[in-house]
Amino acid sequence: MESKKATTNAGAAADFENLEYVSGFGNHVSSEAIAGALPQGQNSPLICPYGLYAEQISGTSFTAPRKLNLRSWLYRIKPSVTHEPFKPKVPTHGKFVSEFNQSNSSATPTQLRWRPVEIPEAPTDFIDGLFTVCGAGSSYLRHGYAIHMYTANKSMENCAFCSADGDFLIVPQKGKLWITTECGRLQVVPGEIVVIPQGFRFVVDLPDGSARGYVAEIFGTHFQLPDLGPIGANGLAAPRDFLAPVAWFEQSTCPGYTIVQKFGGELFTAKQDFSPFNVVAWHGNYVPYKYDLSKFCPYNTVLIDHSDPSINTVLTAPTDKPGVALLDFVIFPPRWVVAEHTFRPPYYHRNCMSEFMGLIYGGYEAKADGFLPGGASLHSCMTPHGPDTKSYEATIALGSQAGPQKIADTMAFMFESCLIPRVCQWALESPNMDHDYYQCWIGLKSHFTCEATTVENTDLQNGHN
Ligand SMILES: [Fe+2]
């Protein structure tokens, strides 16, 4: 049986628009593109159904605790090992970092903000369009992360990408992504995210012709759903809203097909003569998955004060320290704000964690100007940040008469880490760097008065007027 790979023709579009998925987070899934292709009763029979090869992909050590153990068995037409030796990619990529140190990146406590990077004019696919902005730690030592961004204007051709360094959490901001993986295909639109676990080979096609977005790559661990604590058994991101692909394969000869492997922050290429998307059936719990952020069920303040942003955690990559994340993925979705006698925007803040923010669409409540969809900001460990002057003054001017308000048509997000990021030189020297960012706070004036708070003021603050 042969199936065709979707590219850009109308039939392929229908394929990607109407894909089936398997629902659930972290499930052990079985999927077969041909009935009977999945071996029964054992993982590695002497002869697999249809003459397929059995191949395991391990996302955790064999001996990781069962509740954390991730692996899948892939049944494929030819095994992944059938390729020529890896060679350093020519030309080199040059804008990936996975070992952050003084030789390749800088530390700065300054608040940083970038305007959106333009879509390039030169032909640029997803791989070439990726560049590291900042990060910490080391992919070699299996502890750390890198934050990348991408702009691209063409589909990947006759090649597949994979990162041996870590999981890719991709946040598209502009342009639909058609992603083909060894487990099957996914369509991911802005407003959705996709996680491609470490080691999976994938291709990104751009049906809209251009794309821009953000990537968090994590080294040495994987994303989990956060614990819900007193919230209870439901709320935030529901497990059933995470969607994994179903088995899909192509049986084709592809002369000169190239596997581009990110390994220790460098790219290597290996030639083979067949598509890596030749997995006819698979089972396991180590799989790519996507999630629609509009399905997030926000919990928030219903009386006083602004909740800490952790209340909006979609996924967390833990460290060994309880409650301390290597990287949290947090969103700021549409929601009602109703708090009484409360400064409703995010509070002024210094944080032992470091906060990288992006904006998918709309505006962000703490920044009246300058933080644009496709742009980014970085507030590192203990760097002060908070609402800009315009947002502060507008909030105070409203007083206690604001009433319930809906923050609508917006989706901002944050990658928050316990590790302090170092920033790549090309990001610091980018023409998109907003060198006047600090100005947004310079206008904050003193409202201090030595006069005691009056009863009238207290009443106002308590919402009695
Ligand atoms: Fe903060």
UniProtKB/TrEMBL annotation:
What are the alphabetically sorted keywords of the record?
Dioxygenase, Iron, Metal-binding, Oxidoreductase, Phenylalanine catabolism, Tyrosine catabolism
Record Pfam families: HgmA_C, HgmA_N
Where does the signal sequence lie? none
Superkingdom in the source lineage: Eukaryota
Pathway participation: Amino-acid degradation; L-phenylalanine degradation; acetoacetate and fumarate from L-phenylalanine: step 4/6
Against InterPro entries, the record matches this protein to: HgmA_C, HgmA_N, Homogentis_dOase, RmlC-like_jellyroll, RmlC_Cupin_sf
Residue ranges of every copy of the Homogentisate 1,2-dioxygenase C-terminal domain listed in the record = 294-448
Homogentisate 1,2-dioxygenase N-terminal domain span: 20-293
EC annotation from Swiss-Prot or TrEMBL: 1.13.11.5
What cofactor requirement does the entry state?
A: Fe cation
Q: Which residues bind homogentisate?
A: Y364, H385
Q: Which residues bind Fe cation?
A: H349, E355, H385
NCBIfam families, per database record? hmgA
| Family in the record | Belongs to the homogentisate dioxygenase family.
**What protein name applies here?**
Homogentisate 1,2-dioxygenase
The species this protein belongs to is: Coffea arabica
